[in-house]
Design a protein that fits this description.
This protein has about 200 residues and is mainly alpha-helical. The protein folds into 2 domains: about 110 residues, no CATH class; about 70 residues, no CATH class. It has a two-stranded antiparallel ribbon with strand order 1-2. Strand 1 and strand 2 form a beta hairpin. Helix 6 runs antiparallel to helix 7 and helix 6 crosses helix 8. The protein is elongated.
Length: about 200
Amino acid sequence: MTLAILGFLGSFLEMLALALILNPMGYFVSMIVTTTSSFGPIGLKTHLSKIVDPSELGKVFTLMAVIDGFAPIIAASVFTFVFQMTIDQIPGLCFLILAVFSVIPLAIAMFIDLTDMKRIECNNKTIKKFNQYDSIENGYIRLAEEYMGSSYGKKFQQIKTKNLGSDSNGVLDSGIETVDTQSMTTTVDTASCRS
C-alpha cells in the first residue's frame, strides 16, 4: 500500500497547489508534486490482487475500469459548473474540493497499511511463540492451554496421540469432536497481540 499512499498523496498535493497558488508558479509546482500520482491506482490494484479471490479478480478490475471510465464524464460536468460559479469569488475552490475528496482514498490507504503492519507484527509474535516448542503440535497444545484453558489443550493432546491426520484445511477430526486448528491460530494471534 506504500505505492498507493504515495500516489494519493501526490494527487492531494497537486490539487492543493492548484487551489492555493493562483499564478503560473502554482501550475509548475503542481506538475512537480503530481509525479507520484500515477502510483495510486498501481498500488491499489496490487493490493486488491492479493486480497481478492483469483476467480473474482476479473470482475473487480472490470468494475474499476467502468468506474474509471464514467468518473471523468461526471466530474467534468460537475466541476465545470462549480468553476463557473466561483471563478470571481474563490477561483481555486474546485481544486480545493478535489483536494478534500482526495484525502479520502489517502486516509483509507493509510488505515489499510497500518492494519497490515499490525497484523504482520501479531503473526511475527505468534511465530516466535511457536519457535519455543519442539514441534508445531506441541506449540498448539501449549498455546491452547495458555490462552484457552487446560481442558482445550488436553482435548488437542488426545487427538494428537491418536495419530490422526488432518485434511488440507488444517482440521483434525477425532471421530467424536472436530478441532479447527486455523481458528485456534487466529485466537492465539489475537491473544498474543494483547500481551
